[in-house]
Design goal:
Layout: H1 5-24, H2 28-54, H3 60-77, H4 79-108, H5 114-134, H6 140-157, H7 164-192, H8 194-197, H9 202-222
The protein binds zinc ion.
Residues 44, 97, 101, 123, 127 line the site of zinc ion.
Length: 223
């Protein structure tokens, strides 16, 4: 096992998640999978990204609040253009999260158990789906380039050191924008009636999102 084994597994799992998302095409299963992924990612922001950004850094909470305010303004008030900017911010947030995962993995060392392996895969599959669904304004080719670039940030993160006084505020701000983008995506999904048209009930959608959140909690306990 080298330091790269787990980061590379996680990068591949993220791409497989994106592939699953594409393979399902539009329809009830892709819709439910998207809700699952969004619930997952929202939980990750709350139990993983925000603690990362605010641990030993009290101003992080203020920066986070600013990120939430900017995210809300972009996603809910300024129309399609604002939403596009918000989604770009959210994808950047996912990218930062990947760098942080790389940094954490480098600090944790090269040991892998079957449990860590399973948690790493279960963690990255939904994140790959979320990146793909957030980038739905782009052509399919560009979405793949983006997914590839984001997944590379995990092994890259093991090699770089970002000074904490830059890393934490940027991460806190991105977490705020990311949280709002995910909430908006979930709200749109539920309000649009698209899942209902596709044959899924509101209960099933909620259950999918809640299931994603529970899985997120479990993978975060391990990794
Ligand atoms: Zn993650």
């Amino acid at each position: 096992m080298t330091t790269f084994t787990l980061p590379v597994i996680m990068a591949l799992a993220e791409l497989v998640g994106a592939l699953l998302f594409v393979a399902l095409r539009r329809g009830p299963r892709q819709t439910l999978l998207t809700c699952f992924g969004l619930g997952f990612a929202l939980c990750i922001v709350i139990i993983d990204v925000i603690p990362d950004a605010t641990e030993d850094y009290l101003p992080g909470w203020i920066v986070l609040a600013a990120g939430v305010a900017v995210g809300a303004a972009l996603m809910f008030r300024s129309g399609a253009r604002g939403a596009a900017v918000g989604n770009t911010g959210a994808i950047a947030g996912m990218g930062l999260h990947n760098i942080c995962e790389g940094i954490v993995l480098a600090a944790a060392g090269p040991a892998i158990s079957p449990l860590i392996f399973a948690a790493a895969v279960a963690h990255k599959l939904p994140e790959g789906m979320v990146v793909f669904s957030l980038a739905d304004r782009l052509s399919i080719g560009k979405r793949w380039i983006l997914a590839g670039a984001l997944s590379l940030l995990i092994p890259l993160g093991t090699q770089i050191t970002v000074p904490e006084d830059i890393q934490k505020p940027v991460l806190a701000f991105a977490a705020g924008v990311l949280a709002m983008a995910l909430v908006k995506a979930l709200a749109v999904m539920v309000a649009s009636g698209r899942p209902i048209d596709a044959g899924a009930s509101r209960g099933t959608i909620t259950a999918a999102a809640a299931g994603g959140a529970v899985l997120a909690g479990m993978t975060c306990l391990v990794i």
